[in-house]
Design goal:
Elements: H1 21-31, H2 62-73, H3 81-85, H4 90-104, H5 106-109, E1 124-126, H6 130-133, H7 136-140, H8 144-160, E2 168-171, H9 180-189, E3 198-201
Parallel strand pairs: 1-2, 2-3
Helix pairs in contact: 8-9
């Protein structure tokens, strides 16, 4: 569920757990004089191929969606094509909505905030990938479409959040051995259109 307040353990899966936001927040807080707000959106078991599919990316073909519908109808005969299509991009939409809701309620959630000070969207950390990595169809294509989809996600987020130069750091997936998937992540930062604004952080050893 949603939680907010000063940075401490408790912003992980539940109120006694933590995620990478804790160490990241310590470092950023020490490095900057300005007040820092971390907006965390984190749902396990999600992929860029499906759940975080950005609006500018290609949906699966009609044939693929029809096959998915037919498989699902074996368990749920009432399933419709609209219901099959709806989960694609749902986590992306939820992420944008959450960021917008937080920014619209800053004075309520953070009494020290004043409209005069304003805010700047200063960066995005993207730390995700296991569900894409273990997808056999993506593995067969050496994750080339993951690179394309993640690049599109960055472009769409910059547009939807009205932050055209939003810096992005892609955290290397630590699950499994370093291989083709991590190379596909790094390839996004290497695209000429992202020169100087998207970085890839090797975290596998940690």
């Amino acid at each position: 569920g949603e939680r907010f307040g000063n940075l401490k353990p408790g912003y992980g899966a539940n109120e006694i757990k933590m995620g990478p936001e804790l160490g990241f927040g310590w470092v950023i807080g020490e490095a900057l004089d300005q007040q820092v707000l971390l907006i965390k959106t984190c749902w396990g078991g999600r992929s860029v191929k499906r759940d975080f599919l950005p609006p500018g990316a290609e949906m699966p073909s009609d044939e693929t969606l029809q096959e998915e519908l037919e498989r699902t109808r074996k368990r749920n005969p009432e399933m419709t094509m609209e219901q099959i299509r709806e989960p694609y991009g749902r986590a992306y939409r939820d992420m944008v909505r959450h960021v917008e809701e937080v920014l619209a309620s800053l004075p309520e959630k953070f009494p020290e905030y004043t409209e005069d000070r304003g805010y700047e969207l200063a960066g995005l950390v993207w730390f995700q990938g296991r569900n894409d990595m273990v997808d056999g169809s993506q593995r067969e294509e050496q994750y080339t479409r993951y690179t394309t989809r993640l690049a599109q996600l960055i472009k769409d987020l910059r547009k939807d959040l009205d932050a055209p130069n939003l810096p992005v750091v892609i955290g290397e997936l630590g699950a499994g051995e370093r291989g083709e998937f991590q190379a596909a992540q790094a390839a996004v930062a290497g695209l000429p259109e992202f020169d100087g604004t998207v970085a890839f952080a090797k975290t596998r050893e940690f």
